[in-house]
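Ticket #4471: structure output looks truncated?

Reporter: J.K.
Steps to reproduce: submitted the chain below (152 residues) through the standard prediction queue, then opened the result file.
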Amino acid sequence: MRKRIFRATNKIILFFMAILGFATACKPGGGMVVAYGSPHADFVVKGNITSAKDNSVIKGIRVIAQGVTTYGYYPADTVKSDASGNYTAKITEMSLTQIKLNLTDIDGSENGSFQSLDTLVTYTNPKFTGGDGSWYIGSTEQVLNIKMKPKQ
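Returned output as attached by the reporter:
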């Protein structure tokens, strides 16, 4: 008799565990909840590139943005300034403290010749917006307008 009660109790417990397991593993609308990944955010730096000599916009400047973490360098994003001199670089990571910008005039004398420039953008207590409530923390943005010196 005890064995029968024990087996029946085990079956009931097993039934409820299975129901609870399926109920907690499924999202509303179907699909499984993904429970792996790592926190990440978009660090954006953007601005305008002009000549230090006459404030004219400079197009075609290559901007290499490389993330700096407490563990070293992170892969870079490479962009060019557009016809209005604007650039936008984005690095997706979580633990960035800075973005190192390397600016190089790669079009020769087409828009004038300018000296290369290296500079750092520091993220101190960044505020993130647009996160999804899961692994994506959101985006933070800094504006850095740059003046490049002509080559002599």
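Triage note (M.O.): checked the attachment and the full token line is present. Residues 2-25 form the longest helix (24 residues).
Status: closed, working as intended.
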